[in-house]
Amino acid sequence: MKSIAIISIALFAYANVFFQESLAEENPEVPAYSLKSSQLETAQGLIDTALESDLAHKIVESLTTEVGARLGGSEAEKRARDWGMKLGKKLSFDRVSVEEFTMPYWERGKLNISLTAPYEQKLYGTALGGSASTREDLDAPVVYFRSVNDILEIEPGSLTGKIAFIDGEIMVKSQTGAGYGPANTRRTVGWQHAERGGAVALVVRSVGSDSHRFPHTGMMRHKEGTWASIPVIAVSNPDADHVRRLHRLGEKLSISLSSTAEWKGDVSSGNVILDLVGRDKPEEIVLIGGHLDSWDLGTGAIDDGAGVAITTAAAELIARLPKRPRRTIRVVMFGAEEVGLLGAKAYAKQHADEAENHVLATESDFGAGTIWKFDSNVNSAANPAIDEIGKLLSQLGIVRGGNDVKGGGPDIIPLVELGVPTVRLNQNGMDYFDLHHTPDDTLDKIIPEELAQNVAAYAALVYLAAELDVEFRTSDKETGETTSK
Amino acid sequence: MKSIAIISIALFAYANVFFQESLAEENPEVPAYSLKSSQLETAQGLIDTALESDLAHKIVESLTTEVGARLGGSEAEKRARDWGMKLGKKLSFDRVSVEEFTMPYWERGKLNISLTAPYEQKLYGTALGGSASTREDLDAPVVYFRSVNDILEIEPGSLTGKIAFIDGEIMVKSQTGAGYGPANTRRTVGWQHAERGGAVALVVRSVGSDSHRFPHTGMMRHKEGTWASIPVIAVSNPDADHVRRLHRLGEKLSISLSSTAEWKGDVSSGNVILDLVGRDKPEEIVLIGGHLDSWDLGTGAIDDGAGVAITTAAAELIARLPKRPRRTIRVVMFGAEEVGLLGAKAYAKQHADEAENHVLATESDFGAGTIWKFDSNVNSAANPAIDEIGKLLSQLGIVRGGNDVKGGGPDIIPLVELGVPTVRLNQNGMDYFDLHHTPDDTLDKIIPEELAQNVAAYAALVYLAAELDVEFRTSDKETGETTSK
After folding, report:
1. Which residues make up the CATH 3.40.630.10 domain(s) of chain B?
2. Which ranges of chain B have pLDDT less than 70?
3. How far apart (Å, rounded) are the C-alpha atoms in residues B60 and B44?
């Protein structure tokens, strides 16, 4: 398999160079950009060093082992911040800090869920984020919906005393994760329809692409600030298959359910911030990072210990260069991402008046798989420089995508809204949703060589973004002026 | 991958013919055996029909869906017997019956298990078969043993008030399942050492070859009729990895534990028996089957719904021939296999005085994977006939093993002890122990084409074993006489 991987990388690299050249020919009006040979040498050195380094793996091993699962707002997440501060100090960062914020805290509690008709059989389920508890143990008949579309028109009161079950398809696998959005509706808003129908609870097929016997958790969406008043439980794909087969046989189903999930009031969380201060333009920030919190079912190895480890390791390799790059490189370990991008929103709010100092931002939050595509959304005048970085990255099997792809990861969304330009190193997500938000998100699922490829790409990209004399910020379309100071 | 599989089958087939010829050359004194062309045609027709049939898949789908999990001795296992009787009557069997027996019944109950030091984190565990309950909730320090070998010399009282944790290696994967025995010791007898040391509970690394976050259950061994007096819990491989890493960091570990597992007294179980009565020698029995019970965590698709389905479907295809074979073909759906071969022992006891009527026996109880090797243990004079059957099976990618391999599956052991000759169609068990005894043993794990290959092999083999005028029974080594009547 290794030789196949190498051939694939070679083919990608070839295709990349080929398309780069084609693009250059098609856009003769865009002036070319050349990296200095010293910059190229430094970036190449970072790539070579990163591919031989196990630093990122050591970081994610440390986080998942020494801290473990770390739900946003929990005591464990506090321990993760302490861990992040300690790590930042141990490594070569110039400034380390925690920026705290307040958030509402939801806890999963305990769950028992079983089929009780046509016979008794345990179901493998978990409460979805924001779910209410059962006030008393439930045992109720099931009303089966083939998909979320079938419950959208439900009449008020038509589900009174019943448990709604929303089936659906196993999430489509893809390199880009394109199946997630369509599958996710049953999880995010299914409860609003079940509740309107008067259901005592909602059970949904997990949003995930695997066939293992554990559920995928994830946050529901609130409706104008109001969360579900009923318990909402996801069951594993094999369990949902089982329910579907019984339903097709014409069996009357019932489910028993008890859950102690609940909102616990406001607690403290925070973002950990590690800076390498720029030697020439310290106020200009290239922001990278991942999120420090995880769901509580697994130990958050791929989501998102990997992202924290990749970006921290990349910054550390840059920190070990003889001199700092021109701009500041900031690693943010965002808090409370899973439960609503709370750390990201807090960061954007706390740094709103210096948003324009953020010259480029990106996050690693799509697992630990190989990076295969490099997208950007920068000032079009800066695109030739980004293309040059893309050419350098092609040796890692990474193709250049486009400059029209907005967004550098979930925690970057609030910064994008403030006009911060982004790049994105897209990881192969083909198997990501087999593990994402499940108990199976554990260290053993990370392939060290793939993690090292990530670090190599981030190190080269981030170094150059901080070093080059290139303005990535887009011009303000309303005024026609550049948003830079 | 399909082309690779086809090439593999071709290579196997070639190797088979090659070795067959070599063996024949090496044993010139054994007279050759020829199948009649009508017999060959019928067997070939069965293979062709079986490869196109979805009967076995329909049977295992029906069992796992309509009955579900079916622990030995449970109400669910009773429903499985009713299902088996109904199926036998619906299909073409001449006689269907249930032979009951009494057995002690153990129930898993509920379990909560968590790390509590160095921090709180849920462990994914399950009580092992025969485990005692916790009398009160436990929270105790952990004494870590790197392997079961490290606890064998434990001094009485040296674990008082402690929870013993027996680690070990992830079970070695192999086509033959050779890794199971060595890994299994920590599960079967670990408790005896922990108990002698005075431990309040034992936690062991699951016996299984996967890296998923669920435990593998399985029966412990009793010691002179006495079962464990302490709770014994298996945790998933990723959880055991986690404990190992924390231990290596020098952390003091503790675990909290509550379990309601317990022995419930004597209950009724039974074997379902489906006969195709032989047209010429009805008293002579070719016995095939699988076990009807399953562990309660999954729905017993590969262990052993598949075996029940394969052998029932094979017999049914034979039943649809214009006439019955000479001998009786008996499908036994054994009860209570997982909890100690109780159905098999009851069958051997109930049929002890007609044991010699059983001319050949085999069981399918190693999953639903492709059969790759055909072993036997029959009268050496019958071996050329078995070799001829082997040649026919080579078209299915099955190599001929040896005639010195005793045992036709777990439920055949008590019959072997009574002198019954056996054959064995060995399935590829490379991934079997990823699923075996876990919640993940569900219908979706069965590949219909592989199941059909199994039915084809069983149908041809069992038809010929029942049709040929060959004596498989071995001569009695003590008297020098044949054990046949």
Report:
1. 8-105+266-467
2. 1-30, 475-485
3. 24
